[in-house]
């Protein structure tokens, strides 16, 4: 990209925190190493203005891989008969939280498929128990699409945050990625309900999923700007062999990092994780994510005996390489972050609204 065009676009994005659809498309399609370098420098400055060098950690508990949905890209889709299914009991989940708390985690993320075996009331009682045991911790839920009253019940039970990637903001592309039983309209309805109820909300999408274009990505960025979420989850698409997209090419490290940088400039105070998918596509993915504007890591606290079954995609990196205990994994993460100038902190890591 020509130097002056690059400068104009990046300066405008940093100043106005938004570009037009065609400018976003131009920035994405014309991206090159020099543009990325300048983007990441600006993104790091923005991140450090709001969060300094702190890296927030979230203890991820993948508590069920049962799912009623059939998303074409996802390894735990209902039609995948090749994975063993599991659902953790409340006692086991509470034990994960206790262990995590002892290690320094102050946020627990309960993630799972849309498992009809976990009733809304069961989840509410679980959230209440976690908050009772650990009043100094935040609870994030990531369990898909539900009616507004259910989200309300969980919020009243003490849930603080909710992660629900919108997956794509383009209607036709949403239909390409999902069966007809799912709709972008309902996904968006959920996100706006969650926001109105008072959750800190995270949306997001996969980078480089099959058939994704610069126009789709521009639409995602415009949607994210309109929603103004507190968190955004971006990771590369990675194929899972037993899904309809099992023979498709993986997304790229480079595109994912570029998008992290763009999102940091667009929402300077956002909580932005370097995801497990990023760690899977490249062994230095977490460090590179931080250097591109991310400020959150989500190490896995799921019990080792079921971890391999939460197989969203092939080769999923464990924060611990699959063998390390959670304590060792956290020590390793601290060292890795320190090596690139950041520090893992013991903190709930709430969203800090930008005051200027
Ligand atoms: N069921 C909940 C939901 O729909 O939000 C949470 C679990 S879902 C498996 C979490 C996220 O995993 C999805 O939002 C999707 O973006 C991501 N994911 C699923 N399959 C993937 C794949 N093959 N590659 C990369 N990410 C994937």
Question: How does the helix and strand content classify structurally?
Answer: alpha/beta
**Residue-averaged pLDDT, rounded?**
96
Provide the helix percentage: 40-55%
H and E string = HHHEEHEHEHEHHEHEHEHHEHHE
Strand order of the largest sheet: 2-3-4-5-6-7
Oligomer: single chain
Number of helices in the DSSP assignment = 14
- Principal-axis shape: globular
Distance between the termini: 32 Å
Low-confidence segments, given as residue ranges, are none
The largest pleated sheet is described as: 6 strands, parallel
* Small-molecule components bound: S-adenosylmethionine
Give the tally of β-strands.
10
Give the percentage of residues in beta strands: 5-15%
The gyration radius over C-alpha positions equals: 19 Å
How would you explain this protein's 3D organization?
The chain is α/β, with parallel strands linked by helices. It has 14 helices and 10 strands. It has helices spanning 3-16, 21-29, 33-51, 90-103, 120-133, 148-157, 171-177, 184-197, 214-227, 253-266, 276-281, 285-291, 304-307, 326-339; strands at residues 54-57, 59-64, 107-112, 138-142, 161-163, 200-207, 231-236, 273-274, 296-297, 343-345. It has a 6-stranded parallel sheet. It has a 4-stranded parallel sheet with strand order 8-9-1-10. Helix 5 (120-133) links the parallel strand 3 (107-112) and strand 4 (138-142). The two termini are 32 Å apart. The structure holds S-adenosylmethionine (SAM).
